[in-house]
Amino acid sequence: MAVTPPQPLLTLRRVAKNFGGVRALRGVDFDLHAGEVHALLGENGAGKSTLIKVATGAHTPDSGEIIVGGRSLSGLTPALAQQLGIACIYQQPALFPDLTVAENIGLRLEHGRALRRIDWPARRTQAATLLVRVGATIAPDAEVGTLSMPEQQLVEIACAVGAGARIVIMDEPTAALTQREQERLFTVVRELRAAGTGVIYISHRLEEIFALADRVTVLRDGESVGTHPVAAMDQAALIKLMVGREVSQLYPPAESPPGDVVLALQNTGCAAGGVRDVSLEVRAGEVLGLAGLVGAGRTELARVLFGITPADAGEIRLNGQVVTIASPPEAIARGIAYVPEDRRRHGVILEMPIAQNMTMAIHSRLFPGAWLRDGAERTLALDYVRDLAVKCAGCDAPGGSLSGGNQQKVSLARWLATKPRVLILDEPTQGVDVGAKSEIHKIIRRLAKEGLAVIMISSDLPEVLGMSDRIGVMRGGTLTAVLPGGSDAHVVMATALGGVT
Amino acid sequence: MKKYFRELSVTAALLLVLLLLAVVAPAFFQPQPLLSLVTREAPTLVVACGMALVIICRQIDISVGSVFSVCSVAAGLLAAHGWPLPLVILASAALGALLGSVNGGLVAGLRLPSIVVTLATMVTLRQGLNLVRQGEFVNLPDRVQWFGLSQAAGQWTLVVLALAVLVALGLAMRHLAAGRQVYAVGTNAEAARLAGIPPQRVTFLVFVFLGALTGLAAVMNIVQSPQVQPLSGAGLELKVIAAVVVGGVAISGGRGNLWGAFAGLLLLACVSPALTHLHIEAYWEKAIQGAIILLAVVADGIRQRRGE
Fold this sequence. Notes:
- The structure holds 2 protein chains of 2 kinds.
- Chain A is an alpha/beta fold.
- Chain A is built from 18 helices and 20 strands.
- Chain A has helices at 48-55, 78-83, 101-109, 120-133, 149-162, 179-194, 206-212, 235-243, 298-305, 328-333, 343-347, 354-358, 363-366, 374-387, 404-416, 434-449, 461-467, 489-497, and strands spanning 10-19, 22-32, 37-42, 63-68, 71-73, 86-89, 167-171, 198-202, 215-220, 223-229, 261-270, 275-283, 287-292, 313-318, 321-323, 336-339, 422-426, 453-457, 470-475, 478-484.
- Chain A has a 6-stranded mixed beta sheet with strand order 6-7-8-3-9-10, sandwiched between helices.
- In chain A, β4 and β5 (71-73) form a beta hairpin.
- In chain A, α4 (120-133) crosses α5.
- The radius of gyration of chain A is 25 Å and the shape is globular.
- Chain B has one domain (5-307): ABC transporter involved in vitamin B12 uptake, BtuC (Orthogonal Bundle), CATH 1.10.3470.
- Chain B has 12 helices and 2 strands; from the N terminus they run αααααβααααβααα.
- Chain B has a two-stranded antiparallel ribbon with strand order 1-2.
- Chain B is globular and about 55 Å long.
- At the A-B interface, α10 and α11 of A face α7 and α8 of B.
């Protein structure tokens, strides 16, 4: 078929998907033509990943239609998607590190009985041919684990090409690449396009979208806010589309002026943690929001401050004194508390009673002589249950029996019990329902008023704008700007993206 | 009640077996044979207490049998050299702790999987002992047997000692912050670390503890006979792991307690004498023990499924 088919390769019509109470996609339309690069853009949590997973059959949409090559599909599975020529290249290549390149490609492309004889020469030849086609200079016999990230991506692309993929989806492929590696990847993408493949390209880097894409679709809060030819757009227009919503007025206002500087960082960095050259001051009684994209280094900075990956460069001052923080116990002793992002994995121990969860970080203080005092534990737990309005069957109920918002309160209680001076909150309201979210916001504001220095990492832009007295923006492992509270959403977004300022 | 359902059901099963024996074979309850049975299990109980700690910490130690053998022989030699018994006990426990610290150091320090590390130390210690001793028995001086007491007094001493270890550790796991930390690390090591509990140190220490208890148990075993068999610990690891698992300590860590392990050990120990009294061939012992273990694991699996 030399003629481009009139219908799109892939059409998604009114696709909707809910996870529990969260509406990840609310009726999104999307189409992809042969020989185009169609960029997908949106904030963290806008629904890009969900949309991709619908297109690859990993998620079944609750409603809506998926049309591939003119055929409407009711039940798209990953296997069927593969048969239809849909391939997805993830940011972290999903290859087998201990097998060679040829074996990896063979595993993807050869289908047959488990006991068939493997034609090794054919497998190697096939791999070599495909690698040449994607412009890679990788030996088919190299073990994948020894390859660099961009080389592994090329192997993934070779798999896609070898499978005869008509639709190639790339999820932030350049996040880990250097400039030169990027250029090479772009060349491959352009060749794919020239060969009539449709490419869905996800990236946070606006420059790439202008360099590569033909059309761009912007998602916001699970809805498509428009598909436009890239030539008709500029960076400012794209950012406006991504952000364009009103900031809710429901956030509790700051009531008191900030006090003394509690925590001061001077060129702080940690090579192992991927944080470099951060200079920052946080005052008692203030909420410092940390904005940035996923992977910008915010959680990594928190881990440095909490001694999980201790700083190896620069200076950390607490109340004016230079300190080292080499481990979590040391951080706790110095009055730093860190409420981690993934509360189910790193925060609340689901099998443990609420009371035990709350006292976990203060064993040595609550129990001098190491003998557990159930009475003291209960009293403390009941205090926090009342104070933070934790909805639970009692202090003995296991952490896993609580809703997300209440688990977060238990996690918070554990850290408040350490009587910290600096409280680091990592995505404090992620996956929390609206009511609990506003309660947590009130608690955060109250804690600041009581004199804590609060650092709040959040990917929820309205939350950062609404809660923060100042907003630090991180990008690429360092702090790129500190903006005043109440800054314009577009400015924060643009700073986080590293585009216009 | 619901929380301790697992422990209570093992205890119920144990009582059921005892009741059955009371009806069918009252001879089982004659004091002297019963005391002998319990005495034989006393060292196993001490090791099982340590093993419960290790498994609650989401680790395993299959080298206990070899450590037990090494400590037995070492303690026997020291006793034969004329060391006083209290010193022999201390030395044996210290040697056990040292061997345990090798396991713990490799597991916690290098973050190696405990099953592989302890498999290696199990084989190494066993073969090393064979090589050095060539299977030679150690003859013990008379003053060692039953601690130099009468047999009955010695037996009671062993039983009381084992129960003392059980009660002390059982209470510690419930009432000491250290015990709580073992549970925390076994349930979610990363969350524990973020709460300021050092998981590597806790892991290291439970191995050292198990080693020390194994060394103590070795002495509790050698005082029961005039000679030290170099293979006295063979198969011990399976016995104690089985007892702990039957007693409701989850192999996936963080759940269970020593009382359950105690009930599990007694249940498994009852099988053999029960068979004798019921006139069933002894060949069935292992099969029935295996079935009990399977039943316990399946029950845990079903409970966990339901919980999710």
